[in-house]
Design goal:
By secondary structure, the chain is mainly alpha-helical. It is built from eleven helices and no strands. The longest helix is centred in the first third of the chain and has 31 residues. It is globular and about 60 Å long.
Length: 317
């Protein structure tokens, strides 16, 4: 392909710097997160249903994705579908910036491309695993706050006292109860999930895009970006859903005075208890909303990211 169909061109000195790309990835992630956030809240509510932590004898009804979303809008108000958006966007300031920057740096400076300019799938997989793990570990406290805030509306409807009043209160409350370590509660399943999701997202998008550009007459534009993001969304959802279920349950469980969870002792303990009591398919509870969110999130993110890179003079991803 001629210079990777437009990849090699003169760019401003700042355009390919790590920090400039970091800012562009944060902008794209903020747009994607805001557009698709109601699906994330719906997914979280679905996963918590049927969990072991029930303080009342009344069984929570199992509702599908659409019923759950409509139920939240009807019972709590439409704006509650965006409850927890602030820490979600704050998370992406750290998470998406780090994972995107780390992946490109690993791809271009550590693992390296082949002599013909290609990037093997196994290298893309390794890069995605490392980049996702690093970004998520750093951003884990914001994810913890987001999950807890998403569940506040349900807790109030069930007659339970509110745990947090807002983003800052959630941070300070977690810090007071569990110390610095408490802010990283659930970081292991969090990082495991991010590693799998990014292995699916980054590696699939990168590999699919190179494959399409190398085997079709399509140029590096929105059509290629859309097709690549469609592939990355389904792979990421398939790999990440079980880890996402475990992560959500561990992060949402009550803690004792020492900041330790009272329901699960580890990711493995949560996995075993979930399968034993609810069956293997419980690990894919929320798969449809996860995929239904990842698909538009991936599409919105990659289209936005590639376009802001192009408009700012940065080379294509």
């Amino acid at each position: 392909a001629s210079a990777e169909k437009g990849h090699h061109r003169a760019v401003p000195g700042y355009a390919d710097s790590f920090w400039f790309k970091y800012i562009l990835s944060v902008i794209a992630a903020g747009v994607a997160e805001t557009v698709t956030y109601p699906l994330d809240l719906t997914k979280t509510r679905l996963q918590i249903q049927g969990e072991l932590s029930k303080h009342s004898k009344q069984k929570v009804p199992y509702r599908g994705m659409l019923q759950t979303a409509l139920g939240v809008a009807r019972e709590e108000g439409v704006l509650k579908l965006w409850q927890g958006l602030t820490p979600a966007v704050q998370r992406h300031v750290v998470y998406s910036g780090c994972r995107m920057g780390a992946y490109e740096w690993i791809r271009d400076n550590v693992l390296g491309r082949e002599p013909d300019g290609s990037f093997p799938v196994w290298k893309a997989v390794c890069g995605g695993l490392v980049a996702g793990s690093l970004g998520q570990f750093i951003a884990s406290p914001t994810d913890l706050v987001k999950v807890q805030m998403q569940m506040e509306g349900r807790r109030l409807l069930e007659g339970k006292p509110a745990r947090v009043r807002g983003t800052w209160h959630a941070f300070t409350k977690i810090l007071a109860e569990g110390g610095i370590r408490g802010l990283w509660k659930g970081w292991v399943p969090n990082v495991q999930r991010a590693a799998l999701v990014n292995m699916g997202d980054l590696a699939t998008y990168d590999s699919a895009k190179r494959f399409i550009l190398g085997h079709t007459s399509l140029s590096d534009g929105p059509i290629v970006h859309s097709l690549s993001s469609a592939c990355s969304g389904i792979v990421a959802a398939s790999l990440g859903t079980p880890a996402d279920v475990v992560k959500t349950r561990i992060m949402n469980q009550p803690t004792d005075s020492m900041g330790r969870g009272t329901l699960y002792t580890s990711s493995l303990d949560c996995l075993v208890k979930t399968v034993r009591k609810e069956g293997v398919m419980a690990l894919y509870k929320g798969f449809i909303p996860i995929w239904s969110r990842m698909a538009p999130w991936s599409l919105t993110f990659w289209l936005t990211y590639e376009q802001v890179r192009r408009l700012s003079g940065t080379t294509s991803f």
